[in-house]
UniProtKB/TrEMBL annotation, chain A:
<feature type="compositionally biased region" description="Low complexity">
    <location>
        <begin position="622"/>
        <end position="632"/>
    </location>
</feature>
<dbReference type="InterPro" id="IPR005378">
    <property type="entry name" value="Vps35"/>
</dbReference>
<comment type="similarity">
    <text>Belongs to the VPS35 family.</text>
</comment>
<keyword id="KW-0653">Protein transport</keyword>
<dbReference type="Pfam" id="PF03635">
    <property type="entry name" value="Vps35"/>
</dbReference>
<comment type="function">
    <text>Plays a role in vesicular protein sorting.</text>
</comment>
<feature type="region of interest" description="Disordered">
    <location>
        <begin position="577"/>
        <end position="640"/>
    </location>
</feature>
<keyword id="KW-0813">Transport</keyword>
<protein>
    <recommendedName>
        <fullName>Vacuolar protein sorting-associated protein 35</fullName>
    </recommendedName>
</protein>
UniProtKB/TrEMBL annotation, chain B:
<feature type="region of interest" description="Disordered">
    <location>
        <begin position="303"/>
        <end position="323"/>
    </location>
</feature>
<protein>
    <recommendedName>
        <fullName>Vacuolar protein sorting-associated protein 26</fullName>
    </recommendedName>
</protein>
<dbReference type="InterPro" id="IPR028934">
    <property type="entry name" value="Vps26-related"/>
</dbReference>
<comment type="similarity">
    <text>Belongs to the VPS26 family.</text>
</comment>
<dbReference type="Pfam" id="PF03643">
    <property type="entry name" value="Vps26"/>
</dbReference>
<dbReference type="InterPro" id="IPR014752">
    <property type="entry name" value="Arrestin-like_C"/>
</dbReference>
Length: 935, 323
């Protein structure tokens, strides 16, 4: 009957159906006999029904269906039995009677059914009956049948155990000890059967059989569950009786599946408190398990369990002493030792599994010993020594690598990034990752810094000055350098030749995306102490330089802006009241600088994209004011200390930092030029260092000459130069002259006449500086006009020019008063007009329609002229404006066809004049202008 | 000659017999006994040294004058072997004359008594042999009136007190490198309502067993020496294990004897026959090979077998062994 393998699925189904039918038939007859009150026949049919359970042809799952069918029917029989007792037949009699059955399996089912009623009736001592049943059940040695029989026994007897406090307890009827013995014996027997189940059938189906066995595991585990539910099971009893026996059974059964399941059932089934007291015993058992058992998951489960327990105890009202207890028994080092033992005892243990244990240990440590970093280091060191000899990428063990990743992620979430940076073992472990994987981790770390509401602040442990907005800052040199070690794949190529994943393999877009993270990170590397901050910047620069040109493109601009931010901190007036003002002022500037900076970072310097401006600006605004506020708070306390770093040093550093961007492989001339200008401006307006500022502008001009070729870019760069230069007041006449003339000649080097003309007009503003803090809004209309007319990007100088009237401001130390030279302005405008005339001549010579754009050039001059005229700058009189107006009008009358933009601009200029002339404040001036007739 | 005529004419008188107790009331003790056809009949039950009392009523069947040459009752104990059918061997034959020859007008009742009778052997019905007791009433005919004769069987059971202390049966058996077991029955002697308790320890299992059962076997031996003839019957099969055990497994045995039709062990009954019982432990492997070990047990009838029928004694006392 016991065939080598089970029949096919169809065949089994057929057998199942047949058996079900037979059961139903027997059950029917049995019920009929019950109705007739015929004990002998009821027993006979019950036995017949139970005999169907004797089949060996069904696999456990199908057998279960059969079992359930019978199980339901047995209820009738039990009811009948209890009726019979009412008629004077004693259970003792019945108990003997059912034992007359010839076959062992039906006999035992009936015995269990009667036996349980026997106990319930209090006629017999539960101890004796239970002992007898559990012993007699040994008669079924077939794994599946035995398991189900014992499951039935266990299930029926559950409520009848002489548990402490139950009605079945008593000196004659048994104590908790007997309940315990019963469940333990049943458990041990069931486990034996369960283990034996694997030897059923052929070796071919082993895998399938193991799956089937797994489905039966809960039958075995039920015993443990019931054990744990005993009211009388105190800790001593558990420690002295239950655990040793269970562990002994687990270790001696030598079966992978069973050991794993039972260990887990043990861990999950019994209260945490028990585990706490028996930790040693539990851990001692682990190395004795079979090599195939996933000890690590058992271990991990145990640690997780205790960690959760500790966590809930710490947070809730449960038991505040748990943490102390855990500490008292030094659970951590026990765990650690146990892990070491397991690793030593199982030479074939997969690296991943070893690491998984350490991961769990780390989570445990994080919950139980929050804030004790040395422990983390200890764990990491242990993990490292385990993995140490496997080399980079753990010898290609991808699973282990994944696991290592999650190990390394644990401290990040449990301790916060700031604390983690103090871990010495961390980088050693990361070195075991492949470059690509390490990079993933690095990205995680960076995101941690960028995203978290500072975990360190929450745990009260972090060293970083977490500002009010909850931004994580890395604030010491050591931490910064260790951070760079942590994220080395983001800042440098693999240090092993041939390792994949380096910058060369990535396209620009991906690389940029990645480096933007680094760039963002840089803003989090800061210290309230300027000296430290500067040192941080220096380290960052060194680290970034390692990354090679393609990375520098993205990261350096961010670095420079960080430097500028520091600079602003340096020059801030120390008094808190003033500081607030300065912060306010800074905010204004910051908008602009931040805008440029972020744009540079985000766009990777690929030209200018006006459309993106609005968006980028919004992003950058958020952190900047926050940083400013933080800085203000800081400056209050640091009022007395002298900055450890001078502006000069800082600017020199920045100059050097920008250099790689100017040319060579990392060349980003446009960005570099802007950075230089921003620095130059800062050097002038904040540091008042003329020579340095001069150098910056000089560099920018050189860049303009040498590195920029595209006309548009050149023009844009030139406007940038003019814009910044216009606001700089540090230059003495000499420097200023040489810069201005350089700019002027640069204007002339533009190719198109119209551009030349426009640039010259802009350059004219260099001779008429406005005082700082002048309103920006006045120039709005002009900006609009410029956008409408030119189609080019609105440049800053025109905007600034709006406040030309408010020129008076007290001189600041180190700064020259604003330059106000009407003659020079006029000269420049005239030069521009001359260029326009040349353009007209060009049109005359070629006759090309395209060249009719010269009218635009005239308009540029006209508009600029009107600005100056409007601001009543000496030397710019009505005649000159009228002159230009007439010229344009004359040419239009002569039939020159301007392009659409130009004619729009012309119209708007005219309408501007006429509307202003209507208004009271402009009547006087504009009334003098004679407007041409609009066709 | 008379007999032939008697057969033709039939018995001249009806004979009835009623067992009585000392006080003259009907004798109530009976035992259920299976007949050859499988039915159960209740037969009056006696024990060695019992007094067998009763009344015999003879009713003439003719209206004529009924003459006889005497009425007597015999108590016969005989052993009848299948092999020597028709010539039973009487080991007891007691006669009581009830009436001298004479005439019987109407039916008449004759009391009789056998006091302190030696009923040495138990009644027994086996396949080869039977041992029976009966009361034979004969009315000896006279002249043309044939003899009237009728047998009244009764049943005898003797009870035994266990004198010697019982020793458990313990034995280790096996097939080398294949199967080693150690079995243990708690006794070598059981009374008929006893429970056999024991266990089997598997010391070595290299074969895949399918199940294990205990058979109760009866061996009837008739004759002796060279002419001895044995007849074996399996009275009961009781499965005690299902599935294949592994080494060091211990399987409990509990076998109630009461449901089975057993007799005490009889040895050399009147040098004619023996009935012996054996427990046969049978292990069956997956290829249906049988491994067995037969062990004789002695059965006896316990003295205080006061409750002759029913489901045995009640209460915890009925459970033996672990319980």
């Amino acid at each position: 009957m016991d065939t080598v393998a089970f029949p096919s699925a169809d065949e089994q189904q057929r057998i199942l159906n047949d058996a079900s039918t037979a059961i139903k038939r027997s059950a029917f007859l049995m019920r009929k006999a019950i109705e007739d009150d015929n004990m002998r026949d009821s027993l006979k049919h019950a036995a017949g029904m139970l005999a169907e359970l004797r089949t060996s042809q069904l696999q456990p799952q199908k057998y279960y269906e059969l079992y359930m069918l019978v199980f339901d029917q047995l209820a009738h029989l039990e009811a009948f039995f209890s009726d019979e007792r009412g008629k004077g037949r004693s259970y003792a009699e019945l108990y003997e009677l059912v034992q007359h059955a010839g076959n062992v399996l039906p006999r035992l089912y009936l015995m269990v059914a009667v036996g349980c009623l026997f106990i319930k009736s209090h006629e017999a001592s539960p101890r004796d009956v239970l002992k007898d049943l559990v012993e007699m059940c040994k008669g079924v040695q077939h794994p599946t049948r035995g398991l189900f029989l014992r499951a039935y026994l266990c299930q029926r007897a559950k409520g009848l155990l002489p548990d402490t406090g139950s009605q079945y307890e008593g000196p004659g009827s048994g104590s908790i000890q007997d309940a315990l013995d019963f469940l333990m014996t049943n458990f041990i027997e069931m486990n034996k059967l369960w283990v034996r189940l694997q030897h059923q059938g052929s070796a071919r189906d082993k895998e399938k059989r193991e799956r089937e066995r797994q489905q039966l595991q809960d039958l075995v585990g039920k015993n443990l569950t019931y054990l744990s539910q005993l009211d009388g099971l105190g800790f001593e009893l558990y420690r002295d009786q239950v655990l040793p026996r269970v562990l002994d059974q687990i270790t001696s059964c030598r079966d992978d599946l069973a050991q794993l399941y039972l260990m887990q059932a043990l861990i999950q089934g019994f209260p945490d408190r028990f585990h706490l007291g028996t930790l040693e015993a539990l851990l001692d058992a682990l190395p004795q398990l079979q090599p195939g058992v996933k000890v690590h998951s058992v271990m991990a489960a145990l640690m997780d369990r205790l960690a959760k327990y500790a966590a809930s105890a710490a947070s809730g009202s449960n038991d505040p002493r748990v943490l102390e207890e855990l500490a008292a028994i030094d659970a951590f080092s026990k765990f650690k030792k146990a892990i070491a033992r397991i690793i030593a005892s199982q030479p074939n243990l997969a690296a991943a599994d070893a690491v998984e244990m350490y991961t769990a240990l780390l989570s445990y440590a994080g919950s139980v010993h929050p804030g004790v970093l040395s422990i983390v280091d200890e764990v990491l060191a242990a993990a490292h020594s385990t993995l140490g000899d496997r080399g980079r990428g753990l010898g290609g063990d991808a699973r282990a690598e994944r696991q290592l990743m999650s190990l390394l992620t644990v401290p990040l979430s449990k301790y916060g990034i700031s604390a983690c940076l103090e871990l010495k073992e961390y980088p050693l472990l990361t070195r075991l990752l492949r470059y690509v994987t390490h990079k993933e981790l690095a990205i995680k770390i960076v995101h941690k810094v960028l995203d978290t509401v500072s975990a360190s602040a929450k745990s009260g442990h972090g060293a970083g000055p977490a500002s009010g907005s909850g931004v994580t800052h890395i604030s010491t040199v050591e931490k910064v350098s260790s951070l760079f070690r942590f994220i080395s794949p983001l800042v440098a190529d693999p240090d092993l030749p041939g390792e994949s994943g380096g910058a060369t393999e990535m396209d620009d877009e991906d690389l940029e995306e990645e480096q933007v993270l680094v760039a963002r990170l840089l803003h989090h590397l800061r210290s309230p102490d300027p000296g430290t901050h500067f040192a941080i910047l220096k380290i960052s620069q060194q680290q970034l330089l390692v990354g090679g040109p393609r990375r520098l493109r993205t990261t350096l601009p961010a670095l420079v802006f960080c430097g500028l931010e520091l600079h602003r901190k340096l020059v801030r007036p120390p008094a808190p009241a003033l500081a607030a003002e300065a912060a306010e002022k800074d905010k204004g500037k910051d908008d602009m600088i931040g805008k440029d900076g972020d744009e540079a970072a985000a766009q990777d310097g690929k030209g200018v994209a006006p459309a993106a401006d609005g968006e980028v600006e919004k992003e950058s605004e958020a952190p900047a004011p926050a940083a400013a506020v933080a800085a203000v708070e800081q400056s209050g306390s640091d009022a007395d200390t002298k900055p450890a770093v001078s502006c000069e040093e800082l600017l020199q550093f920045l100059l050097a930092a920008i250099e790689p961007l100017c040319g060579g492989p990392a060349g980003q001339p446009v960005v570099a030029s802007r950075l230089l200008l921003a620095c130059g401006y800062v050097a002038s307006e904040e540091a008042h260092l003329e020579l340095l500022s001069y150098t910056f502008f000089e560099e920018a001009l050189i860049l303009y000459d040498e590195a920029l070729s595209d006309q548009r870019t050149r023009a844009a760069a030139l406007y940038d130069i003019i814009g910044y230069l216009q606001r700089c007041r540090v230059f003495g006449p000499e420097s200023r002259d040489s810069l201005t003339s350089a700019v002027t000649s640069a204007c002339m080097r533009l190719l198109s006449r119209r551009e030349q003309c426009r640039a010259l007009c802009a350059a004219a503003f260099l001779w008429w500086q406005l005082s700082p803090g002048a309103s920006l809004s006045a120039g709005k209309t002009d900006v609009e006009k410029a956008v409408n007319g030119g189609g080019d990007r609105g440049t800053a100088n025109q905007g600034e020019a709006g406040g030309l009237k408010e020129v008076e401001a007290e001189a600041q130390p180190g700064l020259y008063p604003p330059v106000r030279d009407g003659d020079k302005v006029v000269t420049m405008l005239q030069r521009a007009a001359k260029v326009a005339t040349q353009a007209k001549a060009q049109y005359g010579a070629t006759g090309r329609v395209r060249d009719a754009a010269y009218l635009g050039a005239y308009l540029e001059v006209l508009d600029s002229m009107m600005r100056f005229w409007d601001s009543e700058i000496p030397g710019v009189d009505t005649g000159k404006v009228q002159d230009l107006l007439d010229k344009v009008q004359a040419d239009l009358a002569a039939g020159v066809q301007p392009d659409a933009a130009t004619s729009r601009r012309w119209q708007s200029t005219l309408s501007y004049i006429s509307t202003t002339a209507q208004q009271p404040h402009g009547k006087e001036r504009y009334g003098k202008l004679k407007l041409p007739q609009v066709p | 000659m008379k007999n032939i005529l008697g057969l033709v004419q039939g018995a001249a008188a009806r004979i009835d017999l009623e067992f009585k107790n000392e006080r003259g009331q009907p004798y109530k003790k009976t035992a259920p006994v299976k007949t050859k056809t499988g039915e159960t009949e209740d037969i009056h039950l006696f024990t060695n040294k019992d007094n067998i009392l009763g009344e015999i009523r003879v009713t003439p069947l003719t209206t004529k004058k009924f003459e006889h040459q005497g009425i007597r009752v015999q108590l016969v104990g005989q052993i009848e072997l299948l092999s020597e059918r028709g010539s039973p061997h009487d080991f007891v034959n007691l006669v009581r004359e009830l009436a001298p020859g004479g005439e019987l007008q109407t039916s008449k009742t004759f009391p009789f008594e056998f006091r302190n009778v030696e009923l040495q052997y138990d009644s027994y019905r086996g396949s080869q042999v039977r041992c029976r007791y009966l009361l034979r009433v004969t009315v000896v005919g006279k002249g043309m009136t044939p003899d009237s004769r009728r047998d009244f069987p009764f049943w005898v059971r003797n009870y035994e007190k266990l004198h010697e202390a019982t020793v458990p049966i313990k034995m280790e058996v096996g097939i080398e490198d294949c199967l080693h077991i150690e079995f243990e029955y708690d006794n070598a002697k059981y009374h008929l309502r006893d429970v056999v308790v024991g266990k089997i320890n598997f010391l070595l299992v290299r074969i895949k067993l399918k199940y294990m059962e205990i058979e109760i076997k009866r061996k009837e031996t008739t004759g002796s020496g060279n002419t001895a003839h044995n007849e074996n019957d399996t009275i009961a099969k009781h499965e005690i294990m299902d599935g294949a055990p592994v080494r060091s497994e211990s399987i409990p045995i509990r076998l109630y004897l009461s449901p089975f039709d057993l007799t005490p062990t009889y040895r050399e009954v009147h040098n004619k026959f023996s009935v012996r019982y054996f427990l046969n432990l049978v292990l069956v492997d997956e290829e249906d090979r049988r491994y067995f070990k037969q062990q004789e047990i002695v059965l006896y009838r316990k003295e205080d077998g006061a409750a002759p029928s029913g489901a045995g004694t009640t209460g915890q006392g009925a459970e033996k062994g672990p319980l």
